[in-house]
């Protein structure tokens, strides 16, 4: 999910199950004599407090619980959502899971018990240039606990340490101070400002563009 879009999230894996590899790549034939490597993400992925996983049908209530809140969506280009809109969003997320190659990962941020408290996304629309867009949204009851940063940090580390990508980027409204702090804490660089680039409820907003290169991440002290 970008920070603007609904693209942004019941499983219980057996403790005796063999762990899946962190990642792999798939080769999709584009034309005779030419192919493209697409990275794939083995899910679920675990961070210190979260389980990052695909959405499932039972997540509708949890997804709608944050998607209907104005305080959550006021800095986004969607919402607050009706139940029907949340249902359509969930259906879109689940459709993406069967795509081959899969270029959009809109994933649940789950607590260990299974409850989804938000979403995080990786979009690979610019994969041929080695770029990935990352985004996130979090239920307001969990703001201030570092959950969004934990999820974004885990995915960024995975991208640069396991995938052959060069650049991760993100965008947020200039008015979204919390997202700006998160991206800067992650080590992203403010690359530019798009003036009056989005209009929300009749008001124009500037959009900030942030990015981080693979060599910058790998050279960082973490």
CATH class of the domain at 39-169: Alpha Beta
Quaternary state of this entry equals single chain
Main sheet record: 8 strands, mixed
- The count of helical stretches stands at 6
Extract low-pLDDT stretches: 1-22, 27-35
Number of strands: 10
Order of helical and strand elements: EEEEHHHEEEHEHEEH
- Portion of residues in helices? 25-40%
What strand line-up does the widest sheet have? 3-4-5-6-7-8-10-9
Note the beta-strand portion: 25-35%
N-end to C-end Cα span: 25 Å
- What structural class is derived from the secondary structure elements? alpha+beta
According to CATH, the fold-level topology of the domain at 39-169 is Aminopeptidase
Name the CATH superfamily assignment of the domain at 39-169.
Gcn5-related N-acetyltransferase (GNAT)
Shape: globular
Give the CATH architecture of the domain at 39-169: 3-Layer(aba) Sandwich
Average residue pLDDT: 86
Q: What radius of gyration results from the CA coordinates?
A: 17 Å
